[in-house]
Specification:
- With 483 residues, the chain is α/β, with parallel strands linked by helices.
- It contains 15 helices and 16 strands.
- The protein has helices spanning 14-28, 40-47, 51-64, 138-151, 153-156, 166-180, 195-206, 220-228, 245-250, 272-283, 341-350, 360-371, 374-398, 427-436, 471-482; strands spanning 67-70, 74-77, 124-125, 189-192, 212-216, 233-239, 242-243, 255-258, 289-293, 318-323, 335-338, 406-409, 416-421, 439-440, 442-443, 458-462.
- The strands form 4 sheets. It has an 8-stranded mixed β-sheet with strand order 4-11-10-9-8-5-6-7. Strands 12-13-16-15 form a 4-stranded antiparallel β-sheet, with no helix packed on it.
- α1 (14-28) crosses α3, α4 (138-151) crosses α12 and α6 runs parallel beside α12.
- The protein is globular, with a radius of gyration of 23 Å.
- The termini are far apart.
Length: 483
């Protein structure tokens, strides 16, 4: 039986130490593909630890794709060269390679995706995925602002470098090292007022003759931003492991934009096997790069955050992007990206004339907020808050007649989950009926560019903006819409 020492775990918890030991043995080849791991109970007894420790380690390994489980059989090591089968791109078929309409960048008429009337008044909003502003740490932020005004008066009036002040970039680099396992230099980081601005910088850096590819389904605003800058943008289907590799290989994309640690809205976590395939795709051409959008990685509610794709990139092919808008407040327009050093050199040479779009006042305040540990404490509080919100909502569903009509999926990460509904109504009919009842909902099909591959009768339930005292009413309204 496998045996590991727990004499020197460092700052890791027991389950983190065990998780790392097994992961390292898988990566080194010590544990071969399809090797059967010990049962949780026997493994715990052999190692002298609790069963829950083994269970948590196995859960993290499953989430990252290093192992898989078979009902009533046990846990097995994943073959990292394996490729998943299509799930979210249901109409795509390997046997019909000529059917490549999903590669078209042409616009189709998507009347269903029309935005609701801005004047509509909703009692309950299941569509907003912003962090709750009510939980913003106003007292701490105000205290740090006063300190910055007192201690950094001259720096506040000194123009910031194009990439942002060094103090903030150093704080971000330490945060990424401590919580995402990423070893990056402050000099690789560019700070900007929102990811939309950073997308524009990347387009200028790569050139408008490059072809971008995004996920389908996905956040349509990303595609719209790229197209508004005059670049070709393809929408590629997903399978149960992320971007469909056959579709990616068949297209002429140069830049791939994806969210491997937690895709919105499907909740897919790209396993390590697919991540290496993606890095392999990028390495085949000098012009190929991957933009890793990690916008809500902090809000994984079960186990540790999934390691970033950038952390396993040894070919300088991954551009990492994240934002404080999601974790702090929608109006905190501070985002950042980490460029590979060769790209950073190009940025400094070609685009270094730009002024940083975030004020020094906000940059110095955020730098202290991170450096003094307030950001970590805030994220920990928010995880607990959102976990309670999610549990309260799911509990209310299970206690109501709605439970017989729905199946909840992908509930352990981000600030939303999927809800498959048993209904004969079309998605458009369902959203209209909900609108008339004062309930704002979105369907998974609304996030597809190519409607012929859309998954229907599945709601995207965003719960971050819900108030606890309205959850019971929200569940009742949703049930009334389905009957």
């Amino acid at each position: 039986m496998l045996t590991y020492s727990f004499d020197n775990t460092g700052s890791d918890s027991l389950y983190e130490h065990l998780y790392k030991c097994i992961k390292n043995d898988i990566l080194s080849g010590e544990l071969a593909p399809d090797y059967k791991l010990p049962s949780k109970r026997s493994f715990a007894k052999n190692l002298g630890i609790s069963t829950i420790t083994v269970e948590n380690a196995y859960a993290q390994l499953i989430a990252e794709g290093y192992i898989y489980s078979l009902p009533k059989k046990g846990y097995y090591v994943t073959d990292i060269a394996a490729v998943g089968q299509p799930v979210f791109a249901a109409s795509y078929s390997h046997s019909q390679p000529e059917n490549t309409n999903f590669l078209s960048a042409a616009h189709t008429s998507l009347t269903f995706s029309k935005q609701p009337d801005a004047n509509t008044s909703y009692q309950i909003d299941f569509s907003t995925n912003h962090a709750s502003g009510a939980n913003f740490p106003f007292y701490t932020w105000a205290k740090l602002m006063k300190e910055v005004m007192s201690d950094c008066s001259s720096e506040l009036l000194t123009p910031s470098p194009a990439a942002g002040i060094l103090e903030l970039r150093e704080a971000i680099a330490r945060h990424l090292s401590d919580f995402r396992g990423m070893k990056v230099l402050p000099e690789q980081i560019i700070v900007g007022a929102g990811t939309e601005y950073l997308y524009g910088l990347l387009i200028q850096l790569f050139g408008t003759d490059q072809t971008f590819a995004v996920e389908d389904p996905g956040y349509s605003k990303i595609r719209m931003i790229y197209e508004s800058h005059g670049v070709d943008c393809l929408c590629l289907p997903l399978d149960n492991e992320g971007i469909h590799m056959a579709a990616l290989s068949a297209c002429n994309a140069d830049i791939l934009h994806l969210s491997p640690s937690h895709h919105y809205p499907t909740g897919i976590v790209t396993p390590v096997s697919r991540r290496y395939e993606l890095l392999g795709w990028a390495s085949k051409e000098p012009s190929r790069y991957i933009i890793e959008d990690d916008y809500d990685s902090e809000f994984r509610l079960l186990g540790k955050p999934i390691p970033s794709l950038q952390s396993i990139d040894v070919m300088n092919k991954v551009i990492y992007m994240n934002t404080f808008t999601k974790s702090l407040a929608p109006t905190i327009r501070i985002s950042y990206m980490v460029l590979p050093l060769p790209l950073m050199e190009q940025f400094n040479r070609r685009l270094g004339f730009y002024s940083c779009t975030v004020s020094n006042f906000e940059q110095y305040t955020l730098a202290r907020f991170i450096r003094e540990g307030h950001f970590e404490k805030h994220i920990n509080r928010m995880r607990i808050y959102y976990r309670n919100q999610r549990d309260f909502l799911i509990s209310a569903i299970k206690k109501s007649p709605l439970d017989a009509l729905v199946t909840i999926q992908e509930k352990d990460a981000g600030l939303h989950f999927l809800m498959k509904v048993d209904t004969s109504m079309s998605d458009e009919q369902l959203t209209q009926k909900a609108k008339e009842a004062g309930l704002k909902i979105t369907c998974l099909s609304q996030y597809y560019f190519h409607r012929d591959i859309a998954v229907n009768h599945t709601l995207v339930i965003n719960y971050s903006a819900l108030k606890t005292d309205t959850i019971a009413k929200a569940v009742e309204l949703l049930y009334q819409c389905l009957i």
